Amino acid sequence: MNRYLLNRMEEVKEIHQIYCEQIPEFIYELLDSEQLIRLNGISQHCGMDYTKTPVFRFNYFYSRLDHSLGVALILWHFTKDKKQTIAGFLHDIASPTFAHAVDYMKKDYMHQEATEDLTNYIIKKDLMIMNKLKGYDIALKEVNDYKIYPLADNKTPRICADRLECTLHYPHLRGKMKIQDIKKIYNDICILKNEDGEEEFGFANINTAIEITKIGIDNGILDSSNENRLFMQLLADIVDKSIELNIITEEDLYIKSENEIISLLKNCGIKVIQDAWNSFSNTEEVYVSREPIYNKYNVNMQVKKRYIDPLIKTATGIYRVSEISKEMSREMEKFKANNSQDYIFIDFKF
């Protein structure tokens, strides 16, 4: 068996087993790609695992490859469509070290898609993947952009395999949901037609739909929290400065693991970078001010709001949770409207 599959953490194996009991053979074959295996050294949560901030004390490490395999297994379980499944499996192949922190470096706060343009290039230069695709009689254009498959990717707040996988594994990683809770939610999923006539994941039970809506909002609150915004920007600034000082190159972000990059930063011998990394990895608390604080590291920006508004199949038709539950509609609007203008800072000057 593939080394990655053998060495997955038990928690990750359990989640994947819920998504699909059997991993299809073509996924085993694609896992021979070094470019895909590289994703196992990249955190799904953009380097926040390396801070000591209490909100990011995760129970285990969940990699970009864990997530990508999860997306593929969801798609295979529900569609048995090889093209969609492979497109979902490859959707993060261009993720750099620290993932969306690099989007922050490129000032793409609201969409966080700046790094996706390399997907086609990276797949095309991976001869192992290209040879496998040829053997499957699948064209590159059929798998290099998962956005062509609505079940693989769609716009917030709709539910696709990518968003569903994140929504389900994240609370388990944070110790807020048990494995049997994931299974219960997953078993209620069905494929429905949305307002645009496109296929979308939805639910047969209103209570399940409301439960996952609450989970999605809770996940979104953390992803747009003061801690997340500050440490994502600080990490972005550390990476940017390290490139400027020739400690690393931008290309390194696409060929090295996070541990390799971290080792280069910690052992570079350049005080400004070493001090910044120490501050990033050891600071436990952030502070808030109405005004920028002189001589401290400050951030002030709005970021992407992640939440879901699931479809529900009822006796009278298909509706969104926000159309049926006034409480959930209010919670969504409250979450979207929470755009703090405060400055977030830590006791450090970069």
Could you explain how this protein is built, in words?
By secondary structure, this protein is α+β, with helices and mostly antiparallel strands. It has a single domain (3-225, 305-337), classed as Orthogonal Bundle (Hypothetical protein af1432). Helix content is 47%, strand content 8%. It is built from 17 helices and 7 strands. The strands form 2 sheets. It has a 4-stranded mixed sheet. Strand 5 (311-314) and strand 6 (317-320) form a beta hairpin. Helix 2 (10-19) runs parallel beside helix 11 (179-186), helix 10 packs across helix 12 and helix 13 packs antiparallel against helix 15. The longest helix has 19 residues, at 226-244. The radius of gyration is 20 Å and the shape is globular. The chain starts with a helix and ends with a strand. The mean pLDDT is 94.
